[in-house]
What we know:
By secondary structure, the chain is an alpha+beta fold. The protein has helices at 28-33, 80-83, 128-134, 146-153, 181-188, 196-202; strands at 8-13, 19-27, 51-56, 70-77, 88-92, 104-109, 112-117, 120-123.
Amino acid sequence: MKKYKAGSVFSFKISNGMYLSGRIVLDVAKQCVNKKLIEPDSPLSIYNGALLVEVYKGITATPEFNPCDILIPGVFVDKDALNEGEWGFIDYENINPENIEFPESFIDSAEGIFFARGEVRLSISLERYELEKINIRPSMESSYALPDICLYYLDLKHLVDHEYAEQMNLASSDLRFSPHRSRIYSLLGENESESYYQMSTRYGNDISRFYK
């Protein structure tokens, strides 16, 4: 396995033989858990062993870094494709903690129902039947599914096996891709346009400590 770190840019092939690029922005085990920078009950501990990556929209004919608009602003994936050499590391770009974004989901526990975004964990007045209807739970996506997830959001679903195309939708694992997001933020009394950095800082979580 090639060495990597937060900021490492990788490329991967999509089904039409072209390439997309992405960047590792957080290794939860290496940067958070092993350094004991988060508590065991932190929402981030759910993703121990996962990588938070962002993926870019630009499609290229060869593996190259195309730092254009972001297609997926932060998704947790396993390390399988990385470990098997399916990702080629092609560049490095420093991480600005203020630009990192996390998936948003719900935690259903004995203490109640909570909205989770990175380290932010907020109690929310939501009935369990409503939670079941919204159906968004913390999820670590397969890194081997990442190419097809990207094709789905590039509006290239025809390049995905039709039997699985709709399963590439992140709406069941990330509130940001769900039509319920505005209502949830209204229930929370929060601003859905606020960046993760701004929100987490208000709640006393300094994400920059993961990068020191």
